[in-house]
């Protein structure tokens, strides 16, 4: 009798749990917006939306290679499978043309589309939820008023069952998503709070720079901006753990986000190229300074002259030609292929990155340096108009390993990367979309 009571109690709790989850997961379909009923927008709202859409680099995940802007089907590769960016042009049948502002807000801030389906968390609604309704509405205004409608169905996700079930995403949301709006820290300045709002919300920097758990969710606040691997690149930590020899100051962040490069830390290439040049750089200078203020407060950069940094001085000395400069294969290849653009004599010159102090050479993961050597830096990345050639077709894996080892060990004086040859082979085999 006692066992039967226990069984019935467990069964009742289970049924109540399933019913509660079903109630939580169910979201109503919102009314379709007729084309004649679309709201009109003020020009300044549309322009604000254009800037915010760029700063959120919406086009990156909603535009397929050689596809129409915002028409979707960009493949977002995750550890669980591939999810395709949706069509967010104002096409009424396959895009968001039938969405009201309320429906768009729900998608951005709660991760639920107009039909009531939960969105996959590859879409960073857990960041956009921090945005104000006014900013979300501005993005809606821009997409509806300025983007050409494109009739194109979004491809279904390529995920194993049951991960492809939309209603299960509600469970992920329940476990991991904080959908609250940004709340100002009253102990900080208005500029700092503006930077925190932009960084945590629209620019969603943490989506790439925060490590994720086994279920694909960003780890807790203690791991915020601690760095992560994405698309075979390594998004470096945006904290004091950042390995750049010269810690990032607010001015460095502003320079990087507005021009794509800094004098001492590196350039925006790979996935970060469009994020900067077609994205965050569109923000007004005041917003860039706010982001710089916020991020610099996390890095905790000291107020010191980089020219006096001992690592910088050591790097300049290590790069100076000597009698045995070309005896070692890596040094010889470096002198032939790299030094013409990367050699600095007495100081690090703008536009001439010193690789030994660069983040790419100092990360524990060599992926970023390998990517740059294999695939180069195009004119649309890094410093605008400055091109670094790709060496994938000109050098073997062994030659690239020799150069990378010379930079890492010979110039930076850091321990060798383990399994470097295997890493190079893996990155080469994966190719590049950038």
From TrEMBL:
InterPro entries the record matches: Cyt_c-like_dom, Cyt_c-like_dom_sf, Cytochrome_c-type_DH, Membr-bd_ADH_cyt_c
Domain Cytochrome c per the UniProt entry, residue ranges: 32-147, 190-299, 325-411
Record's keyword annotation contains Chaperone: no
Matches recorded under Pfam families: Cytochrome_CBB3
Regions crossing the membrane: 7-25
Subcellular location: Cell membrane
Stored PROSITE patterns: CYTC
Keywords: Cell membrane, Heme, Iron, Membrane, Metal-binding, Repeat, Signal, Transmembrane, Transmembrane helix
Keyword Cell membrane attached: yes
Name of the protein described by the UniProt record: C-type cytochrome
Record organism: Paracoccus aurantius
């Amino acid at each position: 009798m006692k066992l039967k009571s226990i069984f019935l109690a467990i069964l009742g709790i289970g049924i109540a749990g399933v019913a509660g989850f079903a109630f939580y997961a169910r979201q109503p379909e919102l009314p379709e917006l007729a084309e004649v009923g679309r709201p009109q927008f003020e020009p300044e709202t549309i322009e604000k939306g254009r800037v915010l859409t760029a700063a959120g680099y919406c086009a990156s995940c909603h535009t397929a290679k050689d596809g129409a802007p915002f028409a979707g089907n960009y493949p977002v590769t995750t550890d669980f499978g591939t999810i395709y960016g949706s069509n967010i042009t104002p096409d009424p049948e396959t895009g968001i043309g039938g969405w009201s502002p309320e429906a768009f807000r729900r998608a951005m801030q709660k991760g639920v589309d107009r039909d009531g389906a939960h969105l996959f968390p590859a879409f960073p609604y857990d960041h956009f939820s921090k945005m104000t309704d006014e900013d979300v509405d501005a993005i809606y205004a821009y997409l509806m008023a300025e983007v050409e409608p494109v009739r194109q169905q979004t491809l279904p996700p390529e995920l194993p069952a049951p991960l492809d079930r939309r209603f299960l995403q509600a469970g992920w949301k329940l476990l991991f998503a904080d959908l609250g709006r940004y709340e100002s820290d009253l102990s900080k300045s208005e500029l700092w709070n503006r930077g925190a709002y932009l960084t945590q919300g629209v620019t969603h920097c943490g989506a790439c720079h925060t490590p994720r758990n086994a279920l694909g969710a960003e780890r807790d606040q203690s791991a915020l901006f601690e760095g992560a691997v994405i698309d075979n690149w390594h998004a470096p930590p945006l904290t004091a753990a950042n390995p750049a020899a010269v810690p990032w100051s607010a001015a460095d962040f502003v320079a990087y986000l507005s021009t794509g490069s800094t004098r001492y830390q590196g350039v925006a290439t790979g996935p970060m190229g469009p994020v900067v040049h077609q994205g965050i750089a569109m923000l007004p200078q005041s917003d860039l300074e706010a982001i710089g203020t916020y991020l610099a407060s996390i890095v905790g950069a000291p107020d010191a002259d980089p020219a006096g940094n001992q690592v910088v001085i050591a790097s300049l000395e290590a790069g100076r030609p000597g009698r045995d400069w070309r005896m070692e294969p890596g040094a010889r290849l470096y002198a032939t292929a790299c030094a013409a653009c990367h050699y600095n004599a007495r100081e690090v010159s703008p536009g001439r990155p010193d690789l030994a102090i660069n983040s790419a050479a100092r990360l524990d993961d060599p992926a970023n340096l390998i990517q740059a050597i294999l695939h180069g830096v195009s004119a649309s990345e890094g410093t605008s108009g400055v091109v670094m050639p790709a060496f994938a077709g000109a050098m073997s894996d062994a030659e690239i390993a020799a150069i990378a080892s010379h930079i890492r060990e010979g110039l930076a004086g850091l321990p060798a990367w383990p399994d470097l040859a295997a890493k190079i082979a893996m990155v080469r085999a994966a190719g590049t979309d950038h």
